Amino acid sequence: QPDDSDLDQLARTLDAAHVFHSWSAQGVKSALTIAGGKGVRVWDHAGRDYLDFSSQLVNTNIGHQHPVVVEAIREQASLLTTIAPSTVNLARGEAAKRIAGRAPEGFEKVFFTNGGADANENAIRLARLYTGRDKILSTYRSYHGNTGAAIVSTGDWRRVPNEFARGHVHFFGPYLYRSEFWAETPEQESERALRHLRRVIESEGPASIAAILLETIPGTAGILLPPPGYLEGVRELATEHGILLILDEVMAGFGRTGEWFAFDAYDVRPDLITFAKGVNSGYIPVGGVVIDDPIAHAFDERVFPGGLTYSGHPLAMASIVATQDAMESEGIVANAKRVGAEAIAPGLAGLAAKHDVIGEVRGTGVFHAMELVADRASRAPLPAADMARIKGALVERGLLPFVQDNRIHVVPPCVVTDADVAEALAIYDDVLATAL
Ligand code: PLP
Q1: Which of 45, 118, 161, 214 is 20 to 30 Å from 274 by CA-CA measure?
Q2: Residue of 58, 251, 402 to mutate, ligand 1, most atoms within 8 A of C-beta
């Protein structure tokens, strides 16, 4: 790449003057300018490249600039760049068919949105309309997006300044390492978390609850794999009380866990599935809801009161078709599963054996986390200042990390190789040994 510090300076000047950034005080500037990327790497204007072990916001599942997908977008752009959602469009039908084809039998229809938040927004709307009920139950350790109902369904700190939607109730999901239930085994955690949820449902009044909204594997909250029986138990509780189950697969879906949908690894059938991110690696903003047939058919005669100008946007649709086909023909989901099991999991276990600062490692596929602690016995989270130092040192050594609270999430694209993982592990190892 050409060395062009002028472009870097221009990018920084324009950004500082005109760009209002997400989730941050505007006086704090990003240290990083990214000019281009390919596969698992991105680079700045000066030609310095970085190994992307964040997949940006855990979305570039096929890596950056996959040539087949870029070409499909180019082709669609030359044919038809935009069209109203009420029209019939071939690319839209092809995209919906592929997504529905990955869902369990009996899910035929897809409603397309602009991203993950409005996917959840519309799943919640569908659940309320279908059940005639109101409340949405979701966990404190969750992120569901930054719009009306989605941000209030979210459990983490981002909900609190945004609590303007009504009808939302939160509960604690399982998280054995920091158990809310004094559990010592995964079985205890599962059983007690289910008992807690049952009590919440009973206390809220089951007939007032439209849906339970869960990330199949809570992602930003810490890659919290559900213990044995938990998702199955939630499904049973929901069914017992006529409550719908919405599984949020926005981050976990489309290869991230080494499965097409994360829930494929569990014996659970949701009523509504939300997706975004990995469905097309974020090349064009898109998301959606996959709808169980009885719910979809409830709107055969009745009007669905929801829509978006860009629902089923042709560029997004073409990118979904090409992404899905590339993931299938190149074995990208199987690669995520293999690299996760053979390189990432043992590699992180090795780091944990070496560095006391690692309290726990967990994950599946290309969806892993290292939880860093000040003290292994008390499990006190590593302070924010130390996490910031670690993050800075990782970037300094050429690795783009996903750092959240006291955790490093190891979330490379699904196309990552064993050699990339070895390179990343060496950087984590070095930084954990020297940065604190
Ligand atoms: N749901 C989950 C599980 C997510 O991780 C995210 C984003 O990180 C969202 C929903 C929101 O998606 P978007 O940012 O595309 O609106």
Answers
A1: 161
A2: 251
- Exposed/middle/buried for residue 107 (C-beta within 10 Å: 0-12, 13-18, 19+): buried
The model's pTM is 0.98
Which atom of ligand 1 approaches the CA of 142 most closely? 3
User: Which residues span the domain enclosing 372?
Assistant: 5-60+331-434
Contact 243, 128 (CB under 8 A): no
Q: Do 38 and 131 belong to one domain?
A: no
Cite the beta strand spans of 123-270 per DSSP E.
135-139, 168-171, 209-215, 244-248
**Six-digit token string for 114:** 């602009």
213: Cβ–Cβ under 8 A, 6 or more apart, which residues?
A: 120, 123, 124, 136, 137, 138, 142, 144, 153, 246, 248
Cα–chain-centroid distance for residue 21? 20
Same domain for 168 and 266: yes
Ligand 1 midpoint to CA 170 (Å): 18
ipTM above 0.90, yes or no: yes
Among 329, 349, 366, residue at a domain's last position: 329
Secondary structure (3-state) at 364: strand
The number of folded domains in the chain is: 2
pLDDT tens, residue by residue, 130-179: 999 999 999 999 999 999 999 999 999 999 999 999 999 999 999 999 99
β-strand 135-139 against 107-113: which pairing, if any?
Answer: unpaired
Distance CA 103, CA 261 (A): 8
